[in-house]
Amino acid sequence: MNPFGQLYSNVVSKPLLNLLQIFFDLTNDIGYSIIILAIVVNLLMWPLFVKTYLNGQKLKYLQPKLKEIQEKFKDDREMLLQETIKFNRKHGISNGSFILVLFLQILIASGLYILTRNVSDGIELDGLYEMIFDRTKATFDTTAFGFLDIAQDGRDYIALPILNAALSFFYGFYNWKLTPKLPAVPKAKSTKKTDTPFDPETTQKAMQVQMMFFLPVFLFFVNLGLPVGVSIYFAIVNLMSLVRQVFVTQYYTSHIKTFISDLSDTDPISRDNKTVVTDAIVVNEEVATKSLKQDKTRKPVKKSKKKASKKKSGGTKKKSSKA
User: Which phi and psi angles does 310 have, rounded to 5°?
Assistant: First the structure.
């Protein structure tokens, strides 16, 4: 085995196998063991998902300012690199940490998939900790919940592919329609005049609509050819992803002022954060107050017109009487 494969086995495969064996000893059911393992691993990775979400939100609000820097130093690559690094450090943006989090997610997700696939195929797995189990090899009964053979294909239990497709659709529908709206991202200042400016939010919404319909169909046909044990794993992952997305978006939207102040605190002296992040709310508040003032001032205007008309009518009556 190559060094990377050995490292992957020691860091990812063996710990997951031993966790699955512990849950199997407690439940004596491979179906419940896969469910518990998927839930526990997703809960352990929860802080990584939250960090990725927050980093993405911060980057979204600071992106207009970053584009201004890119346009300003577009002819000087060395200065552009220096200013970009300085900007990222000032605002606490770390592209390296984002890549590391994504890499860890892929490693653990792939480890869970390989493990459930091997267990579903009835393969004898080597990697148990001998000091805990007094053996190194693990075998599992492939009957889940007392009636479900996890070694069979998903087409034999069509409800599981349908469930995975439905969960994927609900996840996409939530992101498209039900996600609480954050303050609008200010537009970057640009000297170029374009007839049709690029709007990333509109493009993102269009992609979400496409994925909302395409991904469930794709997952449905993929799950038809996968073992039932893998379909169970996918169902729990999709459910946990939906629950996590709802919680994270709802929680940080209800605490939006704290969220924005956290962004502002990364650079309390400079006006970068204030203009980029908080102006979206300030502008919305100003528009709301102006509209309220206009509504209030419109009513007296109508009354003044009536009074003016009365005065004019009164004046004409007096002139007619004098005449």
Answer: -65, -40
Boundaries of every domain in the chain: 3-187+200-279
- Answer for the pair 18, 129: CB distance below 8 angstroms, yes or no: yes
Which residues are within 8 A (CB) of 256 and not within 5 positions of it... i.e. 6 or more apart?
Answer: 182, 183
Number of neighbouring beta carbons within 10 Å of residue 91: 21
User: Would you give the DSSP letter of residue 274?
Assistant: I
Contact 231, 159 (CB under 8 A): no
Phi, psi of 148 (to 5 degrees): -105, 120
**123-182 pLDDT tens trace:** 889 999 989 998 999 989 989 998 989 989 888 899 999 999 999 999 999 988 888 776
Residue whose structure tokens are 């189990």: 133
- 141-147's contacts with Cβ under 8 Å and 24+ in sequence apart are 141/30, 142/30, 142/229, 143/30, 144/29, 144/30, 144/31, 144/32, 144/34, 144/228, 144/229, 144/232, 145/29, 145/31, 145/32, 146/29
